[in-house]
Amino acid sequence: MANTVLKLNNFTVVYKTQQGPLEAVRNVSFELKEGETLAIVGESGCGKSSLARGILRLFPRNLEKASGEIYINETEVLSLKEEDFRKNIRWSKISMVFQGAMNSLNPILKIVHQVAEPLIVHFGMEKTSAYKRAKEILNLVGISESFAERYPFELSGGMKQRVVIAMALVTRPNIVILDEPTSALDVITQANIMNLLKVLKKELNLSYIFITHDIATASELADRVAVMYAGEIVEISPSEKFYNSPAHGYTMMLLNSVPTLKTTKKLKSIPGSPPSLINPPSGCRFHPRCQYVMDICREKEPPMFKKDEEHYAKCYIGESHE
Amino acid sequence: MDNMEFTSSYSLKGILREVLRYKTGVFSLLIFAILILLSVYAYLSMPYDKAKELWNDSQAWLKYPRNAIPTWLAFFTGKNLPKNIYLKDPKIESVSETPKIVKYVYDINYTYDDFPSEFNIFLNSTFKNNPPNLRIYWINPYGDRILLFEKVQRAEKDIFYIGNESSIEQKFIEYYKEKLGFYPNFPVTVMRGLFGETENPKVNKGNYKLEIEVQFADKSDTIEIEPIIYGKVYGVAGTDHLRRPLELGILYGTPIDLAFGLGASLSITVIQLILATVSGWYGGWVDNLIQRLTEIYMLLPFLPLMIMISLFYKLTIWQLLVVLIILSLFGSGIKTQRAMVLQVKTLPYIEAARTYGASNMRIVFLYIIPKILPPVIPGLIISIPAYIFLEAILSLFGVLDPTEPTLGRIIEEAFQNGALYKGFYYWVIEPSLIIVLLAISFALLGFVIDRIVNPRLKEV
């Protein structure tokens, strides 16, 4: 059994807004094992990015409260001082590949400097050795040395994404959060990047948290899949179970809305739109849109039920409701 | 960004090549090259302090013509206007031993189409008890020998202003009356009397003689005589009312104006850029403070304030530059640049930089400012002439240090001395033309750089 590298316990992030507090992430708990990939899927605005940033403690200015516990290699990091967290955890233990490769690079820095930047500012490394290390890592992500001296605008989208990945890996973290790493790329480049991520994972023994709204790409990489809805993780399961036997109403409807290669089925969209997080619906947060809705769903918030081995879902479907 | 090597097209050379692709760029760089070469030449031939001292030394220019037009301008008048004639190598005859009388005879071949402007005789003598006595005769082409005057030198160094002596004028009126048989029907000035035809108010071209008989009081006394017939043209740029050659003022004034404009524009833009970035990046009360200060600054009446300050404190041009920078710290540039910062601030690469722990300073200077710099640079270049104009305006109001030879100063002096009223157009046009040339070349360079950094404006 592999070690647990990251563990979240009732992690909650609340933002301040003019209409009142907004729970962007609510009571999220999960574990991430060494060498494992956890995909977090969900629609726009469900709190995926807030969760990712929250793990790195990158809160926006209007943060009201961040509570719960985050364990990285069995140390609780949410209560650490900001300075200690920045020095010891962020980017050295856990790093992140940001959304949108096109804008993730400083246009006036050469990519080798860009990749070396975390080493220089984080570890105070000498420029020459940082550059050397940066070139190694650029090689690893498939960018030849001759490109190291170029500026971002001279690179294609896929290459930029590789540079961004190199930047996340240059400090040798164990955990990498990939925030929609392929969303701005064409399909072929997406496939290349996914393959690269697989190779890197194997070579460097990384653990990924892979955030996406694209279930198909998630299936490429994920060992386990967590489904987020309205700030909560509503279902978490090994990936085969996620695709074959979804347990939450939302997951079922979500999978019905995605085309698959092997079977022919009629696609069905999910009616309605995501709920307001300021005044969330009572009971199960998905009940206004759920086609399997029951009376109990409207009144009582479902707890996390154990559906199977390592398969949990916050849904009354298939449960005996007392 | 030290020891970062740029790829060739982004080096200084690359930028230069890019600028030279445009005709306007070539034009503006050419003007700069000429002006800078001239300035370098001026500064190498005479240090600035010395030039400034010379410029303000009224005694230094006595041997130059007053308000002479540039030599090349005379070409357009169609007349052969007189240049300065320095009379030298006289024939020296000893008339008698006791008392010692020596005669100095100067030959003059006057072929110009116009009368000279002045005629001065510089005297430098050494004597035991009494200064020498001078009798000055004038022999014109008619062969008449006229005694201009007889005078005792007043001090060891003395100047006889022949052109201003009314007694000489009177003498010539008598002479003309005698020659013509009637009172001359045109006004007779000293210059006309000396060089004119008796019948017509025209220059009598021919050979003249100036005879100076010096009677010394003692045998050991000596004298040096330096007669100068002043012309009406001088040099490349002419002279002003204090006989100063304008090219000196322009040569030394242009770099001062350039430095003033560049210094003001560069420092104001850089400071505003930093303030705008700090304001946009930190937000909160810092932002509030900077924005409110900017609004207050934008309401201040800038020019009256500048005039008041320079009137009260008698500032030199460089102190004024500091005042100008302080008064422009929170300019309108902060507003537009802050808007750009707010946009750049949300880009993922800045968030990424924050994530891996780049300090605020690093983000401001390495991430944000270089990103918003390209649209700022054309503005910087185009605003340089504005500050040169400001210098000219303040000079014109007479509030700047009057000892500093600047272009604005020259225009002000021309204005004060009625240059346009009296027809000395060159005096106003020369410094103005330099200012306009500077403004045009900076503007053109600004447009070219704008086209380079803003690809939508690029010529195909």
From TrEMBL, chain A:
Any GO BP: peptide transport
Cell inner membrane found in the keyword field: yes
A UniProt-annotated Pfam family: oligo_HPY
Top-level taxonomic group: Bacteria
Transmembrane segments annotated in the record for this chain: none
InterPro entries hit by this protein: AAA+_ATPase, ABC_Ni/Peptide_Import, ABC_transporter-like_ATP-bd, ABC_transporter-like_CS, Oligopep_ABC_C, P-loop_NTPase
Any single Gene Ontology cellular-component annotation: plasma membrane
Keywords: ATP-binding, Cell inner membrane, Cell membrane, Membrane, Nucleotide-binding, Translocase, Transport
GO MF annotations in UniProt: ATP binding; ATP hydrolysis activity; transmembrane transporter activity
Membrane topology label: Peripheral membrane protein
Domain ABC transporter per the UniProt entry, residue ranges: 6-255
Primary location recorded for the protein, binned into one broad class: membrane
Subcellular location(s) of the protein: Cell inner membrane
SUPFAM superfamilies with a match to the protein in the record: P-loop containing nucleoside triphosphate hydrolases (SSF52540)
PROSITE patterns found in the cross-reference section: ABC_TRANSPORTER_1, ABC_TRANSPORTER_2
PANTHER family in the cross-refs: ATPASE AAA-TYPE CORE DOMAIN-CONTAINING PROTEIN (PTHR43297:SF14), OLIGOPEPTIDE TRANSPORT ATP-BINDING PROTEIN APPD (PTHR43297)
Family to which the UniProt record says this protein belongs: Belongs to the ABC transporter superfamily.
Stated name of the protein: Oligopeptide/dipeptide ABC transporter, ATPase subunit
